[in-house]
Amino acid sequence: MKIGIMSDTHDRLDAVERAIKLFNSMEVEHVLHAGDIVSPFVVPRLARLRARLTVVWGNNDGDRLLLSRRMAEHGIEPAGELAVLTLAGRRLALLHGTSEHIVRALAASGEFDAVVRGHTHEASITRTPCLVINPGEVCGYLTGRMTVAVLDLASMEAEIVEL
How far apart are CA 156 and CA 163, in angstroms? Predict the structure, then answer.
């Protein structure tokens, strides 16, 4: 099972559309969004995914009530600050990652095969031995790179993909 991973879309619609097109062309089965969608007008774009979507809140997701309402209109339910998922027999934690201490604690807990986070806008994949994946930023505002990640749950191999 391949999953798509994205974070920090920050209202950049053209980049969101590129990410959706990529994930749909790769036929990923599930997409994880590690927060900072920011505005409700992004949600209809995310709804174009042909995969299931799990979203957690980021520190810039201000009007969570309106975002939640817009998501509900498209059958998307935000998971709150932390999502714990089991996909293809793998345990995953999904959070925005504003606290490095919490990210490190989740990775060191032994409970997860992978921890997916965002917030820093820096794309990275590390093994601690838990896989920690930051897809970077879809928006490209801080680093100049618009990136997502793809994770193969069978092999637990991940890659960063430029949009």
Answer: 22
